[in-house]
Amino acid sequence: MERRLFLLALALGAAGRNAVAADFAPVLPGRRLIFPADHGAHPDFRTEWWYATGWLSLPDGSPLGFQTTFFRVRTGVGEDSPSAFAPRQLILAHAAIADPRLGRLRHGERSARVGFGRAGFALGQTGVWVGDWRFALDGGRYRAEVHADDFACALELQPAGPPLLNGQGGFSAKAADPRHASYYYSRPQLAVSGSVTLDGKRQPVRGKAWLDHEWSSELLPEGAKGWDWVGLNLDDGSALMAFRLRDGQGQALWAAATWQLAGGGARVMRPAEIIFTPGREWRSPRTAITYPVEWRLRVGEREFGLRPLFDDQELDSRRSTGSVYWEGAVRVVEGGREVGRGYLEMTGYGERIRVG
Amino acid sequence: MSGQVMGWRRLAPVFLGSLARRRLATLFSLVAIVLGVALGMAVQAVHEAALSEFDRGLRNMAGAADLQVVGPRGGFDEQLYARLAARPDVAEASPVLEVEARLVGRDESLQVLGVDAFVLARVTPQLLPRADSGDRFAIFAGDGVFLSRAAAERLGVKTGDLLRVQAGSAEVVLKVAGDLPALGDDRRLGVMDIAAAQTLFGKLGRLSRIDLRLRDGVDAEAARRSLQAVLPDGVLVETPAAEADQAANLSRAYRVNLTLLAAIALLTGGFLVFSAQALSVVRRRSEFAFLRAIGLPRRTLFGWLVGEGAVVGLLGGILGVAVGHGLAWGALALLGGDLGAGYFSGLAPRLQFQPLASAIYALLGVVAGVAGAWSPAKEAATVAPAQALKAGDEAALHGGRGHPLFGLALLAGSLAACAIPPVDGLPFGGYLAVACVLAGAVLLLPSIAALLARLMPVGGPVAVRLAVARLAAAPGHAVVAAAGVLTSVALAAAMAIMVASFRDSVDQWLTQLLPADLYLRAGRAQSGSYLDEALQARIVATAGVGSVAFTRHDGLRLAAGHAPVALLARPMSAAGGGLPLVGQPLAVNGPSLWISEAVQDLYGWRPGQQVELPLAGKPVRLTVAGVWRDYARQTGAVMIDLDSYRRLTGDRLVNDAAIHLAPGADALRTANALTALAGPGVLELAFPGEIRTITLRIFDRTFAVTYLLEAVAVAIGLAGVAASFAALAAARRKEFGMLRHLGLTRRQIGWMLAQEGALAAGVGVLAGLLAGGAIGLVLIEVVNRQSFHWSMDLHVPWLSLLTFGGGLVALAALAAVLAGRQAMRQDAVLAVREDW
Amino acid sequence: MLEIENLSRSFNGRSVLRDISLRLAPGEYVAIVGESGVGKSTLLNLIAGLDRPDGGRLRLDGEDYALHDEDALTRLRRDKLGFVFQAFHILPHLNVAQNVALPLWLQGVERDAADGPARQLLDAVGLGTRGDSWPRELSGGEMQRVAIARALVHAPRLVLADEPTGNLDPANAARVLALLAERVRAAGAIGILVTHSLEAAATADRTLYLTAEGLRG
């Protein structure tokens, strides 16, 4: 998703400028994704991420939202440096827990250059780590492990079926211009089991999650101010990924959506079939940014309402990646009843985002 | 009791009025105390400023690190970082490569830290760089350096400018990419990416330091022990505080020595108060008797007389604190935070008013005043009023015979004190010995005075006979005047002997250590500059060069909690030729090691002993072949043969070269050819004479402050002579009048006074020189050895001491005559009649 | 009332005073005359409490000296005795009025409060205008007049004068002696004038002769 492209653009800033010397691999239409090889890292590309989000329930039945994200970044710096510390590849990781009883997010992050066993990634199979944070595909299940200051999780994510290829067989366009594109597949309806430690108390959890794996070398199109993205697991076994890019006036520049059908198979929607309509707004007391925390989402003939687990799921990572955005657990409502759960991400509602 | 309090106020004019009337004597006492307090305060304030700055700098550098892994100056294997970072008890590890980069073409260097910006935030956030472009990853740029404000100011550069620095013997250009906003203003420092630093400065695979943050709940000491177990030899785990302690310890001895000198100045001040009060009490005997007769209680009298001393002391203390801060300010501006001793380079300390220390020093003034007034007050209070009321019962000063036995016991005690080993790195035994010698000498002073009087010729002019008779019959006055002279002369003589011995030894040491014709180096030993093998070959091949001895410098960590020990590798003969050896060298089989006296003291190594030296991360067994004297490295230095070093470590680089010219070669032409071997400003060339001059200049600068203290102490001592004679001359007007009646000319009376002054000062000078000689020996053999771990050869500057002593006696005679002039001018008849 | 009974004092086995007795009532002013070395000063020191007798008894207004320790004797002198010395003992760093006020200061009277009585007494000895002068500006006679004022300023019960004119020329001496007698009588105190001069002794009400044998009327 370009949402993450945006995050990285913010984080990396002039890495692009410094990258003149480096030869980043291009994203081309028509390349067939091959698994499990494409579960692994693609270090020739500039950016890559494994982005897991989902709903968990504690033994007492109370819900939690979670996200764990591992970015791999090729900086283009020090490509020919003889030093073992050369910052050619970086791993940046984020994790957050949305706990309605706390009413806001717990957040943690790690970053390191690849080398000395401090951070790294695997080729040919999902495997990425920084310090004692790791995310890997192991025996058909993903394992996610993070240790932040005020929480920790150790989760196993069991895929329900083959990867869901977004766009044209995994070639996901971000604009009319084919230069702005990525390789992008999702793993919806992941069955989660494991444990979450909150306030020093470790508790077993179960739930449903969503994984995105995406890699690219090219930045976002000019004129994009922010984006809105959802990954929704519906109760009937189907799943929906949808995003749109907004311009400065809040108008959609581009939109895309992919249906995972309940019985297997996928359906890719055309941009015109996707309409994001903002609803109730919430204003952050910390940053004074106003977010539409409720939405109506129309995809083809279906229309869903999105209701947040709680309002304050704003993530302030200005200290690390330098951006403020809203990323949180939402319930999916259709015809007045809950039909699924998922994650909503909204960026670019604050100050104008500097890209590149 | 409030009545008593009011009583103090009521009687104030009776006593304080008297102080005001004896302005000259009071002023001298006051000045002495002001100077003593001021000097102590200044030393304290300057060092506190420098140390707190140093400490803050270190804390900035260490940040939130719980432990630091440090190693030899050349660094250690970077794989240790992977090993330590993976340890379960380590939450975060921050690798640091520290380089002292010399700026090309200027006599200046910049401390550059190669860091991993990602881990800084969690370990040492103070070092986090800020790119001017707002670009977070600008830190990774291969040539970008981020400067602290102090560094940018000192170097006169701003973001975007280029900085030419020396790496090895080559030149690299760095770009100033931003600043270090979280770092204190006073630290001169540059930060760059660790990969870039390793690459640019030829330190691939090396780290200088790893800062560790431990997981919550992990005990730092336990972690230190368990981590130390996995580290190779010569790489140590330390708490960040240890480094601050090492720096503080290093300068502490110097600071304590200075403070001690200030204390002696204060002591001299106390003696002046004593002599002023003692003389005043004598003069006011009948006054006190009268006051006692009309109903002043004994205790009140005693209290008031001590109070007089306390008032002088308090005034002196307060003025002294103020003057001390002024002196400190000036000293910081002129000499820097180490008063010229070179402990805190790269720092710009700021003076801060310290209420507690100031109060303590003001209080010390009061203590000096009270101590000086105590015994005279005691004597005044015990005077029986009935006798003292009789007119004419003055003059008898109870100097007494002193306490010769107690004095001798103290002198014996000082010998014993010299045997006390250092406590916490400080030579307290030495200080105790100094105090014992001084106190003993003061107590023996009356005996010395009596002895001197007996030795004086009986004949001679009448004025001389009168003066000698007075010394023999009433030594009290002379003793009182001489006590101040004694302390100041003892101090001055001791310092003169110590400094002369030190300077002489340093001079000889330099001559032994610098036998070559030319010295060439690629920058300071600490810096990242070196001469590589190609350059070494070209140096040897340069026309005019006869033979070359290369030296490699490194720093080794021998034990936790100790500052690094310098390692010097240079061609060595089996007999240690060319080294300033202490004692005979041993014939040793296998690789031999030559240790400095500091290593001998600090690590207990002895000649003949087999020791392990961590070279290139491996323990290497070497035999100590001899001990050499090293005045350059207080924390210790070891020397091994260059070939052995190369064989053991594989390190082929060197830092400097001692060059003997080929016969008939022109020194200047050869020097020019050598400098032309590398880029302009890269190689530094020095002639031994130059090095010697510079070293001795630094030496003299270091001791400038002590010269100042000496001068002050001597001035105080002289002031004491003048004050006591001024006080007594007034009281002796009747005596002078009577002598004039008997037919003495004024000139003869003046001559008599001069003799008396000379005799009093002579007693003080003689005793002071004796005591000073003893103290000088204590300073050389105990204080210096224990503080700085170096020995020196005794060198007594006889001529200077004799000149100084003679001059002081003459000055004292002059002071006595001047002080007595007032009394001599009085009409003789009137003086006899007069009661006051 | 000063009561002296069988007072004796010896120094190093040499008896100086033997069996001296004397009773003086308030308002009595006596002169004690004797040759040098006969013990005049010793007697005076004993009466002043500056020395202790070997035998006999001293009482002033019923207070027995023997029962007083040194501090109590100091208080007795401070509160009940006034002194005039041959050597004046004027403090050079206090002005004239302050010198006179000194006994009051010692009694605990504040400096301001003591100034009035001191100046009254100065007036009484004819130095009313010299209160702010410094001692060095005074002649010998004037100094002794200051001393007389100081001896009386705190209304003592007993005034002791030891050769008060020894340092003065005859004209000044006569004036000072007359003034002393007048002021002691005016104060209603007991006065004891110790002198070797019969002329001086004549200014007292009666003269007692101190000899080796004792005190005679």
Question: Can you describe what's shown?
Answer:
The complex is a heterotrimer of chains A (356), B (836) and C (217). Chain A is mainly beta. Helix content of chain A is 4%, strand content 53%. Chain A has helices at 2-12, 15-18; strands at 47-57, 63-74, 89-99, 104-113, 119-121, 127-130, 133-138, 141-147, 151-158, 164-165, 171-173, 181-198, 201-216, 226-234, 239-246, 252-260, 266-269, 274-278, 281-283, 290-292, 295-299, 302-308, 314-317, 323-334, 337-346. Chain A starts with a helix and ends in a 10-residue tail after the last strand. By secondary structure, chain B is of the alpha+beta class. Chain B folds into 4 domains: 1-64 and 254-394, no CATH class; 67-238, no CATH class; 461-517 and 687-777 and 789-836, no CATH class; 518-686, no CATH class. In chain B, α24 (746-788) packs antiparallel against α25. Chain C is an alpha/beta fold and 217 residues long. Chain C has a single domain (2-216), classed as 3-Layer(aba) Sandwich (Rossmann fold). In chain C, 37% of the residues lie in helices and 27% in strands. Chain C has 7 helices and 10 strands. Chain C has helices at 40-48, 70-80, 96-107, 111-124, 140-152, 170-187, 198-201, and strands at residues 2-11, 14-24, 29-33, 55-60, 63-64, 81-85, 158-162, 190-195, 206-211, 214-216. In chain C, the strands form 2 sheets. Chain C has a 6-stranded mixed sheet with strand order 6-7-8-3-9-10. A 4-stranded antiparallel sheet of chain C has the order 2-1-4-5, covered by helices on one side. In chain C, α3 packs across α4 and α4 (111-124) crosses α5. Chains A and B meet through α2 and β4 of A and α3, α4 and α6 of B.
